[in-house]
Design a protein that fits this description.
With 578 residues, the chain is an alpha/beta fold. The chain contains 22 helices and 25 strands. The two termini are 59 Å apart.
């Protein structure tokens, strides 16, 4: 066996190398946007260049004011010269409007800004309006006028998707470099003629992947001539100075510094957000939300260990109702999960449930069972047959079948058919993270070797039997741990996980302490054989002792022998009869 029995130190990020850094973080100067978003900063610099002819830019990012504000601030830093004059102003005489050319900035129509951002914009806010009050005409400027002269307008794509007419008008005006005063109501034109004015504006459109896809479908040509950039949501820790850069970044986003002892706790929360010890979040929305919650528990003007722990505990308690309902159902045997004994063809898999509107994913153990009977070698996927299995789940089932056929290397059809199901599952099942558990249940049923129910398993497999990493590993482990903890930790319980998921482990204090005391265990595996030996207590393949593969082959050979004898007997009976 080549599995790794994990120690408690591997369940958390290693903060020891950064203790000296945490002591001086509060004295560090805030960093610039370019340091954490180099690709986006480079794209903005090219887009804002005076000689750039591009009018539109697409940025993949969340449509949130925090993102729009950071992009707007970065744009303003790219401008080293003031905006050009809009070359004129409007003069109203005797209810007639004239455009008068001028080169003086103070006479230009509307106030000028280098960059403005807006999450939601109504047509009147965008294009302005012609107002009548007591027989007097007043021209009300819009956002597009306020950035006229080479400025940039940052807006969300959702605004344009919901109001396509506004987009077509905006696009046409920017390309033609001429602003036309139009009525917001197509059926009611303006009662007064307003001369057009020169327009020099650039637009940055911000949206997530789904919004960008929808927008490009209605504006396919935009990809051909628009700049494209992405707001990076995570910072890789491959570079030695990356953690230093991230601490600078956090320090620049908050007015309330963290004490040195609070940084390891905050980094643990950050790792749980990314799901990877080697990546930290750059999302300003998540960072400011966490720090603002902590500030409600702090009275000393600094974020301390106690205030951070209090905020985290309170948030988990507020969001834990659904998780408690699931655990209560398991404890009251409304959902059957066995954590003692051993059963043939049954294994504890680990699933994640995402309820609509709930802010976090919930880990829930699930009972996977397999029964074997005489047949033609078919592997029946009950979830797929009942139309409760997704495409990725079906792919995992086909990989299981391919792997087992290859391992058995039979020169004839397998005489057994099998049926695999997620017990007490009443919603759609998708993903291949349970394919390792399903294969273990299948091998157990074929070899008639029971599986320890005190252990759960998660991971996907390939056709060569290698165990592949999966997502949401922390939630899955904690979900099974809570079941075991409520029933009483025995020291034999634990979870088998892919070795490639060790880098993603960042478990809560209860799990870490139980592993540290030896009451709960985690095993990391690379191959199917390692997981099977841990679950059944018998090696998958061994030349010197009984193993699972031999038991399966012996059972198949025994059935084929009986079938041949039965066939010859039927033939002799037929000849004797006729």
């Amino acid at each position: 066996m080549t599995h790794q029995h994990l120690k408690w130190q591997s369940l958390l990020p290693n903060m020891l190398p950064y203790e000296a850094l945490f002591l001086r973080v509060s004295n560090l100067a805030p960093i610039s946007f370019e340091d954490v978003q180099p690709r986006l900063s480079n794209a903005l610099a090219l887009f804002c260049h005076p000689q750039s002819q591009e009018r539109f830019m697409l940025i993949k990012a969340q449509e949130h004011d925090q993102y729009l504000s950071l992009i707007s601030q970065a744009v303003k830093k790219k401008y080293t010269e003031p905006l050009k004059c809009s070359n004129g102003r409007y003069v109203i005489e005797d209810n007639e409007i004239h455009w008068v050319s001028t080169c003086r900035d103070q006479d230009a129509f509307a106030s000028q800004s280098v960059c403005l951002f807006q999450n939601w914009i109504e047509p009147e806010q965008m294009f302005g309006a012609v107002k009548f009050h007591r027989n007097k005409i007043n021209l009300q400027p819009g956002l597009i006028h306020r950035v006229n002269g080479g400025g940039i307008l940052v807006i969300s794509i959702s605004t344009l998707l919901a109001q396509p007419l506004m987009w077509w008008r905006l696009k046409q005006m920017i390309i033609q470099k001429r602003f036309e005063w139009l009525s917001p109501d197509e059926k009611r034109p303006l009662s007064v003629t307003v001369p057009p004015m020169p327009l020099d504006v650039k637009v940055v459109l911000v949206g997530d992947a789904c919004r960008l896809e929808d927008f490009v479908q209605i504006e396919s040509e935009l990809n051909l001539f628009a700049f494209y950039a992405e707001f990076e949501t995570e910072l890789s820790l491959k570079h030695p100075d990356a953690i230093n850069l991230w601490c600078h970044y956090i320090h620049s986003l908050t007015d309330m510094p963290l004490v040195s002892d609070a940084w390891p706790i905050f980094i643990r929360e950050a790792v749980r957000e990314t799901g990877d010890k080697k990546r930290l979040p750059l999302c300003p929305v998540w960072i400011k939300k966490c720090l603002s919650e902590v500030s409600l528990y702090e009275k000393q003007g600094k974020i301390t260990v106690d205030s951070l722990n209090d905020a985290i505990s309170a948030r988990q308690w507020r969001q834990n109702y659904l998780c408690e309902c699931i655990q209560n159902d398991i404890e009251e045997d409304q959902i059957f999960i066995e954590t003692t004994g051993d059963v043939i063809g049954q294994v504890n898999g680990l699933a994640v449930i995402e309820y609509p509107g709930h802010p976090q994913a919930l880990g829930e153990p699930t009972r996977i069972s397999c029964v074997v009977h005489f047949g033609d070698g078919e592997l029946v996927d009950v979830e797929r047959k009942s139309e409760l299995g997704g495409n990725i789940h079906a792919k995992g089932m086909m990989i299981i079948q391919s792997f087992l056929i290859s391992e058995l290397a039979l020169d004839h059809a397998q005489p057994f058919s099998a049926s695999l199901v997620f017990e007490q599952s009443y919603a759609e099942v998708d993903g291949d993270s349970a394919s390792l558990a399903q294969l273990c249940a299948l091998v157990s049923a074929l070899a008639q070797q029971p599986i320890y129910q005190a252990r759960a398993v998660t991971g996907s497999i390939d056709q060569f039997g290698r165990v592949q990493p999966i997502g949401r590993i922390n939630e899955k482990i904690e979900g099974f741990f809570q079941v075991c903890e409520r029933r009483g930790l025995t020291g034999s319980q634990g979870v088998i996980l892919p070795s490639k998921n060790v880098r993603h482990l960042c478990l809560n204090d209860a799990v870490v302490e139980a592993v540290k005391q030896g009451y709960f265990h985690l095993w990391a595996v690379d191959k199917v054989a390692d997981a099977l030996s841990l679950l059944t207590g018998m090696p998958y393949f061994d030349l010197d002792k009984p193993h699972l593969l031999r038991k399966i082959r012996q059972r198949i050979a025994q059935v084929n022998h009986h079938d041949r004898r039965g066939f010859l007997g039927r033939c002799l009976e037929w000849f004797q009869r006729y």
